[in-house]
Design brief:
- With about 675 residues, the chain is an alpha/beta fold.
- The chain folds into three domains: about 30-345, ABC transporter type 1, transmembrane domain (ABC transporter transmembrane region fold), CATH 1.20.1560.10; about 370-605, Rossmann fold (3-Layer(aba) Sandwich), CATH 3.40.50; about 615-670, no CATH class.
- About 65% of the residues lie in helices and about 10% in strands.
- It has 23 helices and twelve strands.
- It has helices at about 1-15, 30-35, 45-75, 80-130, 130-135, 140-145, 150-180, 185-230, 235-240, 240-265, 270-295, 305-345, 410-415, 440-445, 460-465, 475-480, 485-490, 510-520, 540-550, 590-595, 595-605, 605-630, 640-670, and strands at about 370-375, 385-395, 400-405, 425-430, 430-435, 445-450, 460, 500, 525-530, 555-560, 575-580, 580-585.
- The strands form three sheets. Strands 6-9-10-3-11-12 form a six-stranded mixed β-sheet. Strands 2-1-4-5 form a four-stranded antiparallel β-sheet, with no helix packed on it.
- β4 and β5 form a beta hairpin.
- The chain is elongated.
- The chain binds adenosine-5'-triphosphate (ATP) and magnesium ion.
- Magnesium ion binds near residues 409, 410, 451 and 531.
- Belongs to the ABC transporter superfamily. Siderophore-Fe(3+) uptake transporter (SIUT) (TC 3.A.1.21) family.
- InterPro entries: AAA+_ATPase, ABC1_TM_dom, ABC1_TM_sf, ABC_transporter-like_ATP-bd, ABC_transporter-like_CS, P-loop_NTPase, Type_1_exporter.
Length: about 675
């Protein structure tokens, strides 16, 4: 349960990440070793499948030799007993080859689908271990592609490798040895084909592999668009942006199509190349073989016979088939290599948050000490998000945090349950550096309700039990009473068994906030952090929640981030943030006296300014909506609005031109 509430709530906060930073591609050996660890219980099937394939292939190669003897001794030699004998051997060979083929197919299917299952599981498990900083490096879409399409590609390639990958070389080598035994001269024809095919194949690999890398990168973009669209489907509809979204999707889809076409067109060279080699070999064998038969008078003791030529033609077909299979495996490997590297990227991504060897498992109290803490989201960013934060909170205190948008209030509190690590300075909870705690122990004691709350599909009670799986019905109800949620829950026909839709869409914003507060309270934490978590709750209920906290959980340290000064007014200490720094800290009275910024926030929210403010807010909101939706009803604003629309259209045109250019470049490359 520990990390879940904080992490789950906070998970929603993590912004759409930037694509993973470009890295050196991992070496093939490293990729194979990393992915190979996911084979586990399917190693046996992975060995059995190629073993049966070898049996199947060797027997298939024996068959032409048996047929050759059958023709020479039985049919041409007119010996009925030989026809019977070799006929029965042929049937036995066919039966064994059939059974071996069936078993190899079965084990290959078990091994490859089991391998894919383990890969998916390992990736998912790894993603759960990611810190916020790790999650920021990958986008949601990219993680989805890596868990689905990429795994399927690797699964298909693996199945091909353990089955066909073993069969093809065995067939190739053994068939060539048999052909050599019949006619060393004719068997050289096959050797002549190998360099031609090798050059063709490797050329293809070099050209096509980067295209497939781009295809998968574009898949990430596609998944991101779908993810964003579905998550924000209500906003899309309310702003009539369906066409825009449709075009955005269409552009990326078109790019994938263009890339795939280019790659497949190149790969299609593979097949004619093989056909040319195969028919050239057959013609050569028939030409040389026929001349030798005529010269020998079809006499085995003198030279080549008809039976031998039949066997040689069959071996030629088998060798070419084997080469064809090898080329298909190459293609499969080309496609899956990019996927395997991307899966490897997830599996080997090291969590930026690591526990010490001997972590502290007990949080003494809810005191918090920031000592000259500096924090940046990325090592590459120039300016720190939090700069030289010095803040000391005693256990049980109530702390209010106010400040403008983007002043790093959320960033500050996210450091407490170690969702991110400080860049410099120290942060102590209960007198111990947060980095010295066992993560689970620390997060068990720090409950966080973040700005963007998330509820999961399931009943209200199930959602609340994320806070404490062992909570009794009575405890759940009590937490809901504190969070002022019990009232509206009782009005639902199914009460605590009411089903919450995915993402909590069937409850209102304020109801969702209260449920999330109740969920956090059920953890009975030593530190409770509410990040703007009552913004959608009316002022009266907000006050009731604060009063309940004051009376019912006096020993819990409470940190309340709020836009409304009224929500933090009675706190023991109010911290005023500005551009990542603490501007001032003190009680409401102290700050009113000495902090200009606080006074202006306070005054702007008091009665005499309230109406004025409300008017301005609604005007601002109106403007924002007009900008976003691209239409307005306010004719006074005509000129400004048309500017906004023009800018938006210009951006759309630029994006469309970019993709069109990309597609043209792809097509141009094909030509
Ligand atoms: N995951 C992230 N990666 C990179 N930068 C981030 C991330 N989250 C926030 N930031 C940046 O850090 C700065 C502070 O953001 P933060 O969310 O802490 O502000 P805030 O005070 O909570 O704002 P608000 O009142 O709007 O909630 C902003 O400039 C923001 O762009
Ligand atoms: Mg915030």
């Amino acid at each position: 349960m520990s990390a879940t509430t904080a992490a789950a709530d906070a998970g929603a906060k993590a912004p759409q990440a930037r694509p993973a930073a470009p890295q050196q591609p991992p070496s093939k050996k490293h990729v194979i070793r990393t992915l190979g660890r996911s084979l586990r219980e399917y190693k046996k099937a992975s060995i059995l499948s190629p073993l049966f394939v070898i049996v199947e292939a060797v027997i298939e190669i024996l068959i032409p030799s048996v047929i050759a003897v059958l023709i020479d001794r039985g049919i041409t030699g007119e010996s009925m007993p030989d026809i019977w004998k070799y006929g029965l051997i042929l049937i036995a060979c066919a039966a064994v080859s059939l059974i071996a083929g069936f078993l190899s197919g079965r084990f290959a299917a078990i091994a490859s689908s089991g391998f894919a299952k383990n890969l998916r599981h390992d990736e998912f498990e790894q993603v759960q271990r990611f810190s916020f900083a790790n999650i920021d490096r990958f986008s949601t879409g990219s993680i989805i592609t890596r868990l689905t399409t990429d795994v399927t590609n690797v699964q298909n390639a693996y199945q091909m490798i353990i089955r066909v990958g073993m069969r093809a070389p065995v067939m190739l080598i053994v068939a060539w040895i048999f052909a050599f035994r019949i006619s060393p001269q004719i068997s050289m024809v096959f050797l002549a084909c190998i360099p031609v095919l090798a050059v063709g194949l490797f050329g293809l690999i070099i050209i096509v592999h980067p295209i497939f890398e781009r295809v998968f990168h574009t898949y990430d973009e596609l998944n991101n668009v779908v993810d964003e669209n579905l998550q924000g489907i209500r906003v899309v509809k309310s702003f009539n942006r369906e066409d825009f979204e449709d075009r955005k999707f269409g552009r990326i889809s078109q790019k994938i199509y263009a890339l795939f076409c280019k790659a497949e067109k190149l790969l299609s060279i593979n097949s004619p190349l093989f056909n040319v080699c195969m028919y050239a070999s057959l013609i050569t064998i028939a030409w040389v073989g026929a001349r030798q038969i005529v010269a020998s008078g079809n006499n085995a003791s003198v030279g080549l016979t008809t039976g031998d030529l039949t066997a040689l033609v069959t071996y030629a077909m088998q060798i070419m088939m084997a080469m064809m299979m090898l080329s298909m495996i190459f293609v499969m490997v080309i496609i899956s290599r990019a996927s395997a590297e991307r899966i490897c990227g997830v599996l080997t991504e090291e969590s930026t948050i690591r526990e010490t060897a001997d972590p502290v498992t007990d949080v003494a109290d809810g005191s918090i000490d920031f000592d000259h803490v500096t924090f940046r989201y990325s090592d590459h960013s120039e300016r720190p998000v939090l700069d030289d934060i010095d803040l000391h909170i005693r256990s049980g205190q109530t702390i209010g945090i106010v400040g403008g948008t983007g002043s790093a209030k959320s960033s500050l509190v996210q450091l407490i349950p170690r969702l991110y690590d400080v860049s410099s300075g120290t942060l102590k909870v209960g007198g111990v550096d947060v980095r010295d705690y066992e993560l689970e122990a620390l997060r068990d004691e720090v409950a966080m309700v973040l700005q963007k709350n998330v509820l999961f599909a399931g009943t209200i009670a199930e959602n609340l039990r994320w806070g404490n799986p062992y909570a009794t019905d009575e405890e759940i109800r009590h937490a809901c009473e504190l969070a002022q949620a019990d009232g509206f829950i009782q009005e639902f026909p199914d009460k605590y068994d009411t089903y919450i839709e995915q993402g909590g869409t069937n409850v209102s914003g304020g109801q969702r906030q209260r449920l999330c507060i109740a969920r956090a309270l059920l953890k009975k934490p030593k530190i409770l952090i509410l990040d703007d978590s009552t913004s959608a709750v009316d002022t009266k209920t907000d006050k009731l929640i604060r009063e309940a906290f004051h009376h019912e959980i006096p020993n819990t340290t409470k940190i309340i981030i709020a836009q409304r000064v009224a929500s933090v007014e009675e706190s023991d200490k109010i911290v005023v943030m500005h551009e990542g720094r603490i501007l001032d800290q003190g009680t409401n009275a102290e700050l009113l006296e000495r902090c200009e910024e606080y006074r202006s926030i306070y005054e702007s929210q008091t009665q005499q300014h309230a109406q004025q403010d409300l008017d301005k807010e609604s005007q601002d909101l109106h403007e924002e909506e007009s900008e976003a939706s691209g239409f307005t009803t306010d004719y006074d604003e005509d000129t400004r609005t048309s500017d906004v629309i023009a800018r938006q259209k210009e951006r759309e045109r630029e994006r469309e031109a970019d993709v069109a250019q990309d597609i043209e470049a792809i097509k141009g490359g094909e030509r």
